[in-house]
């Protein structure tokens, strides 16, 4: 069998039924330790044990978990040369999170969520949401608003795990993976029958109800998931009509069929649909009150095949994603500022990847094709070829990539991973990227990782072609078809140390050099009865460098503590001013209790964020105040398959309406049923 599927065994964790916490290092970077169901091996082991434990409980015989984001081939997280943070299914369930942004905000100091115009985006080690690629099963998610994929629209009921790779990932993923990749791995059904339901109610009339049924035979399995979600908006400044956080109503459905007609061939067909309606209120500088609504619809479909023949593997993928956004703005008592802006964004991706074991090498070669179409009445730049035509724009990309994983030694373990990629963009032409990664593990419990690579982000349709006017404030923003791609050279050096099964330590140093950053700048002053005109421009260079560390300790059989810290030096070259919205200091901490026989869990998690610049000019900078948040959750299992839970978020009620837009203190309770 191809060695891609082989993983090195680690020491088994303590029995969950003895009461020790199985999740001590489940989301720690570079360790590979994870609770919950660890891939196919975990599922087979669980079936062999019958149903003595409720689903989503840890299998004590399984320690490793497979990851694929950093190399595009399945690897044990403990031995992959590309550092990968893993958030397991059990982590997600125990966190109480309902959406992807809620999961990510509970991770280490290097991962942040940042609310903005288009929703909640993800920031990795100072890289903006525009520079972080979001994928589902390796296929990119479309529908960016304001440059960010709204993570709050991605619900968690069908997520098996989340893999986070920090540093340039363009060598395998192409554009947008400048600062890293967040890859969502969806759940796969087992043989037999599985069913589960989840319901929760909380502050601001928040309702979350989801369900999943799955099962099948040895040669085929199928699954069906769905959910309803709603929450009222919130307002940190009730003295005016404007709201700070939008209310929303959403529902989603997904299905998957997995067939293995031959022992060497597997076929996966999946699809999903999401409809989300969010509403809020804005107030202009002139006092006009605007009721705002965004209705978004997302449709995904993927056909994937995998053929394994001895020491080779061939994977093919056909994926399409359609994102429809309808923005409506209604001015109270007038129609001068009324707007209706429909937008269609469609992506078609075709990929093939071939892996071959040759001695101590695993050679990976592949091709990616991507076609994107945008339709909106806000296109204003007329270009030939692949540019806009009236209300339409299109672009295409083709890429070839090659990677060699060489393991010259297994004791001590040494892995060398060079990779190259060549992209052709119909807008920019040829663009090469590369990366070299190295793993050295002199001991089973000690490993060092180094990686250096180049990433890039091509301008989006919005930055190239779209026009937006805000007459109430007195400005308009227009696209710039002459933009160049952003570039980054990223260096990561890390170490992980697991002296015992109860202790985990990691540390890393990173240095990122950015060039041709894209930002909005004033290009024309507004005269009498005229709007100021802004456009996107490439500006200068910048540096993002810092250190990051994590620690996880289990003690007294039932308890565990964890923490992380990041120092970030983010500066513009030339002016040496800080880059906005990048705090220099961040810390996370957690305390947990778990008793397997009682079925009781309790956790306290917190984050402390230092001051950060939020308004920066060439000569000065204004800073937002530091803040801290604390979340608490308690759950109790009953009758083997039923778990009740209660929790509170943002107990310190941090946040404001301007610079720290954090939802106020809230409480929730609910129940999970799994069979």
TrEMBL record:
Gene3D superfamilies: TonB-dependent receptor, beta-barrel domain, TonB-dependent receptor, plug domain. Keywords: Cell outer membrane, Membrane, Receptor, Signal, TonB box, Transmembrane, Transmembrane beta strand, Transport. One of its GO terms (molecular function) is siderophore uptake transmembrane transporter activity. The keyword Cell division does not apply. Its main location: membrane. GO terms for biological process: siderophore transmembrane transport. It is found in: Cell outer membrane. Residues 50-66 have a biased composition (Basic and acidic residues). Residues 78-181 form the TonB-dependent receptor plug domain. It is a multi-pass membrane protein. Residues 216-651 form the TonB-dependent receptor-like beta-barrel domain. Residues 1-83 are annotated as: Disordered. GO terms for cellular component: cell outer membrane. Belongs to the TonB-dependent receptor family. This is Putative tonB dependent receptor. It comes from Plesiocystis pacifica SIR-1.
